[in-house]
Amino acid sequence: MAEYIKYRVPAKGVSATKGVAELIEKAEEDGVKTAWHRLLEQQPQCAFGQLGLCCRNCAMGPCRIDPFGSGPTKGVCGASADTIVARNLLRMIAAGAAAHSDHARDVVEVFKGVAEGRFQYYRLTDVEKLKSLAEALGISTEDKDEQEIARELAEVLEWEFGKPGDEPLRMLALAPKKRIKVWEKAGLIPRAIDREICECMHRTHIGVDADPVSLLLHGIRTSIADGWSGSMMATYLSDILFGTPKPIKAEANLGVLKEDYVNIIVHGHNPILSTKIVEVAMSEEMQELAKKYGARGVNVAGMCCTGNEVLMRLGVPIAGNFLMQELAVITGAVEAIIVDYQCIMPAIVDVAQCYHTKIITTEPKAHIPGAIHIEFNAEKADEIAKEIVRIAIENYPNRPRDRVHIPKHKIEVIAGFSVEAILEALGGTLEPLINALREGTIKGIVGIVGCNNPKIRHNHSHVTLAKELIKRDVLVVGTGCWSIAAAMDGLMSPKAVDLAGPGLRKVCETLNIPPCLHMGSCVDCSRILIVLGALADALGLDISDLPVAGSAPEWMSEKAVSIGTYFVASGVFTHLGVVPPVMGSQKVAKILTEDVEDIVGGKFYVEPDPVKAAETIYNVIIEKRKKLGWPL
Ligand code: XCC
Ligand code: SF4
Q: So where does this one cross the membrane (predicted)?
């Protein structure tokens, strides 16, 4: 079903990642549209929407505020630009926090099933971590076996979502005391995760909260519930179930697809499914079955964050990040893409119709018309995974051999830098890192996270920002699609130390780590929070005093809005490379980029140019060092 391509994409300039341009060209030859093509068709995009000035929260609307002041200044209900912009942003935070936390809920459910002995295909892998989390939450572990501890922990964590009353979230026990004080003072302590998200929806209903300040403060509270509880739980429990990541070698970019193998891609976010697919696909039985169908075996590769999950723990190669999901199909060499949820473009089903790729959805809450739906459940995990892998293998003979093109590019990546792994690299204590920071061998640490966005050059801001920072002796850590971009650019290979400044280089060589550390998937931004908290505690400081910053240079998802907000809430100076839809209200823009700092010690900073952003971020780090009296 080739489509008429009205607007061609200038393929050469579109991406900083090797192999992307040639596949966009192939797409056009094959008559297939990608996100880049559809973005062109969307032009001009609605300016009211870009400014955040459009409201359709009730049926008296939709209402739009004229940014130039000559048209309406209020919606039908009287809502001002400030109210509308703040309400829209709050809904974005709510959706992002909901996505992370509902993912966490799914992991908690499996964890609970394992604790109760109901799910034979999963087990408690990292018992140390289980115990340390239980103890941190005040659950005594003495004289209890691991199942018992897990059962008690599961119960506490389940209540995080919907517990009644005003007691703070239990997971906040992992946050530094100084931070808690800041949040207490500002009335930002989240109660239950679902409650905060629900309250976002309530406050933004017509005729409830009209004050941008109180709306945004609730957004901050909701994001804290996401970062320090929802996402944090997803990370901790995934580690307990599947093992805490350790440095592991793998490969990145579309060149990890193999010409004469059955290629399966796992895409989405939840490791509960993807880990099983990998295990089953790698089994003797499935490898043999693939041979029967004329392939040399089965090859599994990851995409987006579930790709990060299996890369970090199992060394599964990663084929690409968000904007490369369609390109993977366009190679013509992928038998199946198996998805769970989040960041799955419905378009992959359309693209797949032009090739032979089967798109298999697995989640009751994520169906895509035109895909094969095989519902996953933890009780029958292995059987279902086998059924899915078999479909992929049986599809191998249908590969359109004359239309296969796998770009040659792939590169070595060292992933798996969990907090525990970083500590181990440091010899068991934070001391060497603290000394390096204090002496100025490393000037600071920046966490770069987030998506791709076809509005800007694919992966260019991700890698440029990272390179600009490491050459200034700033250690870069990160997650999500950033980490895949950095991996594909070679920034996570030991050779990347050549790009680091002399101080960072020395540290990396001593510790045998790359200058950019892969800390995992989107929910693993929580690992960054833990590192920041531990550094602050060890130094007797608050996170907002540390020479650190955050960045989402190419963000697009609502989850990224929630992450950015909880970084700010945690006291971090946070850069956004894509302008958020708040410019329709000077007041909201000022609160987010200035005033909020007085309340939580962090703030947003918007700069599309990654080189300029690096300079500003570096200057902020230097300012923080000055205040601490550390050498510059
Ligand atoms: Fe999605 Fe996590 Fe964004 Fe990538 S980075 S596009 S959210 S996969 Ni989180
Ligand atoms: Fe318009 Fe107010 Fe309804 Fe929004 S809530 S659509 S601004 S009337």
A: none
